[in-house]
Design a protein that fits this description.
By secondary structure, this protein is an alpha/beta fold. The protein folds into three domains: 188 residues, FAD/NAD(P)-binding domain (3-Layer(bba) Sandwich); 127 residues, FAD/NAD(P)-binding domain (3-Layer(bba) Sandwich); 122 residues, FAD/NAD(P)-binding domain. It is built from twelve helices and 25 strands. It has a five-stranded parallel sheet with strand order 3-2-1-7-18. β19 and β20 form a beta hairpin. The mean pLDDT is 95.
């Protein structure tokens, strides 16, 4: 009805939730839309991806990681941000949420017309890490990072660190701890770190990690912790204990959907919340979901996936907010582009790995091309390895990975654009990429890899 104030409740105050809230406010104005955002932590709209660099000291001040603080949302956007409030129940029938005040105690109930579920993801935490032993940390939120910083800054400072898990967070945290002067062991149950790339590319990453002093133990399962006076003293594995004064969990994350499941909000096959292209939850009128708790469509495999990245969270939140504000927007899907680094070694990937392509039913060829980041004669030229995976019948690019030194990682963007637009490797050989000796050889590594993939397809 005209003149009736609508109420939007946002559950989760980081990238997706606050992007949705601020976009809805921009489009609807202040007169007929009330927005309340609940956040269980102490901060809004911060870069969780920046935490390892704050831990290492590359970023000096925690506040540099905060894009917008709660005061800004309150004053500039008229959003009622309630920090340290954890939503404990969602009643879709009564159209209300129940939230607990984590500091003051008590509970509040708030009605909604629309609800944005943006609770993000939670770290995978094995049973042995639930014992309450001091010195064991996840690194998912800014509060987590602050707790770890305090532990590392204590007197006496810890000297021996064990990172459990070799994904993005594990690798980045291992580097951060090395930079702080700790002795670091990375333990990975699989046969390789960096499972987001294929084994041959992960081997290059492992070599670089060992080169900066990280002790990598692959094929090793952690089964428990030893402690002394309530503080961690070692990580227990089948191969024996590994001494530790601090343990960081890098075992990946899962969508934070426990609250949604209890409320009857439907999940998709990936385990995240099922949404349509406008970020609405089918079968739950007035409910929207965005960010690391929501499912996405993979544009190459055509399958629903859960890929928790800040880039997707911001875009999905913006799409939800535009639609909530009366506009029209859709989220077109993902191809899984990501980059990271180990000291100066850069890693990029997009699309499908070999095992993803096989699981999706593709017949494919894969090639690995060795090149350099600059013209070979130019000072500072260093090796770069590019891997391409192409569909056998059509030559369409299915995935790409890059490992190399300076100027390596962001080259994955050219491959992501090619992938996004369904280009074949033959078409890619003619791409008009920039050339100058300080930036690339006359044949860019991307073009060399594309030519090699065409040759492989021709031979078949």
């Amino acid at each position: 009805m005209v003149g009736v104030t609508q109420r939007l409740i946002v559950v989760g105050g980081d990238a997706a939730g606050m992007a949705a809230a601020s976009q809805a406010r921009r489009r609807r104005g202040r007169a007929d839309l009330e927005i309340v955002a609940f956040e269980r932590g102490h901060h809004t709209s911060y870069s969780a991806c920046g935490i390892p660099y704050w831990i290492s000291g590359a970023v000096e001040d925690r506040d540099e990681l905060i894009a917008r603080d709660p005061a800004t949302f309150r004053s500039d956007f008229d959003i009622d941000v309630r920090l340290r409030h954890e939503v404990t129940a969602i009643d879709l029938g009564r159209r209300e949420v129940v939230a607990r005040d984590l500091d003051g105690g008590g509970e509040v109930r708030e009605r909604f017309d629309d609800l944005v579920y943006a609770t993000g993801a939670v770290p995978t935490k094995p049973d042995w890490a639930e014992d309450g032993v001091a010195g064991v940390f996840g690194v998912q939120t800014l509060d987590d990072g602050a707790a770890l910083r305090d532990w590392l800054d204590a007197d006496p400072a810890p000297r021996r660190a064990v990172v459990v898990g070799g994904g993005y967070i594990g690798v980045e945290m291992a580097e951060a701890l090395i930079r702080r002067g700790l002795s670091v062991t990375l333990v990975e149950q699989a046969d390789q770190p960096m499972s987001t790339v294929d084994e041959d590319m992960a081997a290059l990453v492992a070599e670089a990690m060992r080169g900066i002093g990280i002790d990598i133990r692959t094929g090793t399962e952690v089964t428990g912790l030893d402690q002394r006076d309530g503080r961690v003293s070692a990580v227990v594995t089948a191969a024996g204990p590994i001494p530790a004064d601090v343990v960081v969990l890098g075992l990946g994350v899962r969508p934070n959907v426990a609250l949604a499941e209890t409320a009857g909000i439907p999940l998709g096959p990936s385990g995240a919340i099922r949404v349509d292209r406008r970020m609405r939850v089918p079968g739950a009128p007035g409910v929207w979901a965005a960010g690391d708790c929501a499912e996405s469509l993979h544009r190459v495999s055509g399958l629903p996936v859960h890929i928790p990245l800040g880039t997707h969270a911001n875009k999905q939140g913006r799409v939800a907010g535009i639609n909530l504000g009366g506009g029209y927007a859709t989220f077109p899907g993902v191809v899984g582009t990501a980059v990271t680094k180990v000291c100066e070694l850069e890693v990029g990937r997009t699309g499908l790995r070999e095992r993803d392509a096989a699981a999706s039913g593709f017949e494919f060829v894969s090639v690995v091309a060795e090149s350099t980041n600059r013209a070979g004669y130019y000072p500072g030229a260093r090796p770069m390895t590019v891997k391409l995976i192409a569909e056998r019948s059509s030559g369409r690019l299915l995935g790409a990975q890059i490992v190399g030194w300076s100027e390596a990682a962001k080259r994955i963007d050219a491959l992501a654009v090619a992938l996004w637009n369904g280009m074949t490797v033959d078409e890619m050989t003619g791409l008009d990429l920039g050339y100058a000796p300080p930036y690339a050889p006359v044949w860019d590594p991307v073009l060399i890899a594309a030519r090699k993939a065409v040759d492989a397809l021709d031979r078949r």
